[in-house]
Amino acid sequence: MLSGRILTxxxxxxxxxxxxxxIQQISAKAVSGETRYILPGFVDLHVHGAAxxxxxxxxxxxxxxxxxxxxxxxxxxxxxxxxxxxNSIERALRGLAGVMSERRxxxxxxxxxxxxxPYVSAQRLGAQPPEVMEATLAQVQAFHAIAxxxxxxxxxxxxxxxxxxxxxxxxxxxxQLGHSAGSYxxxxxxxxxxxxxxxxxxxxxxxMVHREPGMVGAALAHAEYAELIPDLQHVHPGxxxxxxxxxxxxxxxxxxxxxTGMPDGEYSLGTQRVFKCLGCVRLATGSLAGSALTMDQALxxxxxxxxxxxxxxxxxxxxxxxxxxxxxxxxxxxxxxADIVVLDEQHQVVEVFVEGEAxxxxx
Length: 363
Hints:
The protein has a 7-stranded mixed beta sheet with strand order 3-2-1-4-18-19-20, with no helix packed on it. It has a 6-stranded parallel beta sheet with strand order 5-8-9-10-11-12, with helices on both faces. It has a 3-stranded antiparallel beta sheet with strand order 15-16-17, with no helix packed on it. A hairpin with a 2-residue loop joins strand 6 and strand 7. The protein is 28% helix and 25% strand. The protein is globular, with a radius of gyration of 19 Å. Helix 5 crosses helix 6 and helix 8 packs antiparallel against helix 9.
């Protein structure tokens, strides 16, 4: 049982929330003392690493990553791959499959895989290694058989990719447009073919210019969903506000790397070496390479832009859960999983529960 100011599916309720693995009841009741905000646990659909560990390492890396992010209020996530050769991707997927089969104590729930590479444009790699390839249904099915792919990033302008989108949708995979040199028209055609969203909007795609709207223009004009990195480094606050206004169910991701939760220094991002300094993660060239963001900080950053707490919470919980079709996550209501984050008056995490289990925040 927890008491405080509870963000329910119908709005704020001052009262108590009773739960075991799932939420049993939310009841209104006068609450005294210091304000505690009780929110749905964060749902992060783009996570490469944390605590010095990269998902591409395979093995138990996913467990380390899931445990680290849980301490910051993330209660479910997608392990995210990098562009690499098939054998390296398969190693990462085998490791993630083990984490998905059994959630360990203190860990966020691993809901599946975000396959961010290798089906991207060589012209818009960003921090992706130069191991791109054209997607085939047979190869995606082989990856999908190792561990369930929930989200797949692709460049729609690459030969054969547009025609593949309906088949991927039939597999239950949400295709996102990203790391793309495609035009506005390419983006619109991909959405019409069944693409569902955009990967780290503004980054790794053709920008919007008033006579060439690019992939960003396609997103702002037509998308229902898109992901955004709210670390205040990847995207200018003004552009973030434009996206929040234009895209009804914009949601936020961390794009966290092995540098998350670690001191300044050198880390891995797939086969790339990256460097954390002053809160940024960059390649040796100086280009941004993922982030060191956690979702609790993402929440505070959104509030700093003027979003109220409920709206900021929806961007980190309900919207990404809805995007995946996870109707019993990302919201506080009877019958939903008891994925809960409790904040103090300064919006700092004081308690986290994953499927009803209290997470040790001190480890």
